[in-house]
Amino acid sequence: MISENFLLQNAAAQRLYHAHAANLPILDFHGHLSAKTIAQNARFRDLSEICLAGDHYKWRVMRANGVPERFCTGDAAPFEKFTAWAKTVPYTLRNPLYHWTHLELARYFDIHELLNEKSAPAIWQRANELLQSDALTPQGILSKFRVTALCTTEDPLASLEYHEQIAGSGFATQVLPAFRPDNALRTHDPRAFNKWTDELAARTNSKIADLADFSDALRLRHDEFHRHGCRLSDHGLNHCYAEPCTRHEAQSIFATLRAGAHLTPAESAKLNSHLMIFFGRLDAEKGWTKQLHLGAQRNLNSRMLAQLGPDTGFDAMGDYPQASSLSNYLDALAREDALPKMILFNVNPTDNYLFATIAGCFQDASTAGKIQFGSAWWFLDQKEGIELQLNALSNCGLLSRFVGMVTDSRSFMSFPRHEYFRRVLCNLVGGEIEKGLLPDDDELIGAMIKKICFANAAEYLALPASPFTSAQQIPSGTSVPKPRPSF
Fold it and tell me: Domains in the chain, start-ordered, CATH in brackets?
């Protein structure tokens, strides 16, 4: 299992991983960690809080295992919740959570025991003891895993005060906001849209009476994010919006919406298309990278949505048509020379070659790998899904320019997913070296591995050089977890 050569099934893979990937720092440019939690740097109360709170991946399988909701998101005692998780873990065999869970225990707590109901009490006690150390506070974890930069996903209304606090503290890891204006596109729901728009007006000390006012207020927030170091935006959409819409049409539709009336689906799509072009222009003007997360069906269980709210584990893959809308959106921005750097994420594996080939149609000399086919996302973030994404990218684009992995997580226990990805990558490439499909040249292949795992993202996102360039530069009191031969 989690041995020194976990997932590395041939000699070339083992050599690539240990020589070129294992000790690289992490640049986690898309995630959902809390800047407030990082700024306050309070110790986690117990293993349940750091391991289970907010982790909808784990809640989903606990529910599938018949665990009552009170042990997932409810009022059960922390040890009861952890015990319910420990009972579930043996049932996760062949689910990536089995690997992730034991990577977490090994890398955070140096625990190499299989988690189950019997081992849970001892693991609980040992982990809780270690959680009292500075190395396992939020900031300690970021230092422990040598995270050079971390982007948090923020609504345009976010105050960004905690990002200011972190930036002024001297903490080595950059914690930067990423601009996610999904609420500006909730045009199908006039009540929610107008409430959010009124809050935007208050945040920007402006009056929003028409589309021009709305655009000006969004630009002000975009400017403010830029001043706080933001260099990425993000949209989580069923599919991209790319309906033709004149400014006059958009103004008229916006007035209807602002008056509280419901839009037709066609009107909503037109206004959202107009806004997406606007957001693309803003990003291009400032040299930002736009991320598009496309294809998820969210909040399918309406009863549980009402009970628990969004992002609690009731989402699924969608089968939305992506090709025309995505290509039309990129083309509209390219026609006016306003196409920013962009990373395209799909959640349905049937769209892998679609996304990889569309990306290839909009590359240009301004940036190598300007349009990226992003890493395997969400339900695809496992060995098979990662390999499928890497193969589609390799066959249709340049793997050597790939910007690599992100955690996309709300859990501070997720950083070993970078290790997991690196091992899968090295195993895939090493296997092809062993078969004679790639040259057995460590200088050539090793350089590519290093770029994919860290350097490409650092160059592409134009972030400052890492303070963690070698093991000797890790702050005192922290340690780099080392694999053991076996549990």
Answer: 11-34+144-473 (3.20.20.140), 44-131 (1.10.2020.10)
Structure confidence at residue 462 (pLDDT): 85
**Per-residue model confidence (pLDDT) at position 471:** 34
Say what the pLDDT of residue 1 is.
73
The pLDDT score that the predictor gives to residue 170 is 92
| Rounded CA separation 398/369 (Å) | 8
Q: Yes or no: say if 141 and 168 are a contact pair by the CB < 8 Å rule.
A: no
Q: Which two tokens stand for residue 17?
A: 């991983």
Compute mean pLDDT per 10 residues along the chain, 487 residues long, and list them: 94 98 97 97 97 95 98 97 98 97 97 97 98 97 97 97 94 96 98 98 97 98 95 97 97 98 98 98 97 97 95 96 97 97 98 98 96 97 98 98 96 97 98 98 97 97 51 34 34
Report yes or no: 107 and 416 within 8 Å, Cβ to Cβ. yes
Q: Which pLDDT value is given to residue 467? A: 33
